[in-house]
Design goal:
Length: 101
Amino acid sequence: MATYTELMAQAQALMTQAEEARKNELSTAVADIKAKMKQYGITVADLGGTAGAKKPAKTKSKAAAKYKGPNGELWAGGPGRKPEWVRAALAAGKNIESFRI
């Protein structure tokens, strides 16, 4: 019976082989997909994606801060999910008004 170390070495060798096979098959798969897209006039948008577009950066709130946390965190107090420091303060029984700027 093989030892744990031997089995782990075999598993690692198989994972390396699997990754090499994936890399070798990837270019063929991509070429096949591109050919089908061209043949049927399919665009990236048809597939629910955007070609080369980056996700828009998250923007900070433009509202003035109304509350300041114990570590200097600022919060406008608007609708939506409360910041972690606010939730922690409320869970500890503190009044949110004690953090008002």
